[in-house]
What does this fold into?
Amino acid sequence: MTTTLLDLEGLVFLRREAHDRGYTDQQIARLVRSGEWWRVRRGAYVAGDVWGSLGDADRARLRSRAVLKAAHPSTVLTHVSAALEWGAPVWGYSLDEVHTSRPETASGRREAGIVHHRGLLPPDHVTQVNGVRLTTPLRCALELSALGSVEQALVSVNALMHARLVEPGAFSALARELRHWPGTLGVNLVSRLADPRLESAGESRTAYFIWAHHLPRPVPQYEVHDGAGRVLARLDFAWPEHGVFLEFDGMSKYREHRRPGESVEDYLLREKRREELVSQMTGWTGLRLRWADLDRPHELASRIRRVLAQREG
It folds into this structure.
């Protein structure tokens, strides 16, 4: 699921802009040492209290703005840097470098925290949002699929699709069109596995885990109805033929599904009661996964297989 972004417009200023406002290099250095200003990258600054209030993703977005302010006007953000501006999760990708490209650039290179990517960049692959020029969500999804692992890409691509920023058919078509790009061997697999129904990074990773370990493919966002036909619950994953459901327990659920004033403990208790009600209504067995479970994949796969097999018996 994509996130709502902070407005970072106009926060970054360059050394030459500070000079124009009357600051000397010595004064700039003192302001940085005191923490009143923060050096985002060489020759680019932001107020120190602003920098201190931001998380890693927004700090990366500020670095992107610092790069663009000093770059050629045709420069656009790409890959991870573009994904951040679209509010997509970038699980597993490094935020240390700013990714850019230019329509007229024929070769790629790295320099001082910037990755300049080569490749064709037609006008309809470029847009502007949040005050910066960047690749479209569709192009960005393909770039991420070429840059990272299939699992990493699925977290971002599923979020873009769930937010209806990328249409699955259009992504498949672009993947076929650009199949000769360097590093795109995994793009077709991302296209096959992508699922706009998945609502979080945890769900995307779980779905990939299930595929990678050759487990039966479950139904995402499975609705359970009561006797009157009303929706009783919507389950992250379900194997109706086995009578098993699975819920991913991630922090995004705590943020998005807690009621106003509800504590985490109260939310977890409510979730437990909901699962008990689902089991009572359906007779199904429930499983709950946490992030740490995905770090023990063989143990987790054995656990799921065992529960599915017991239900078959």
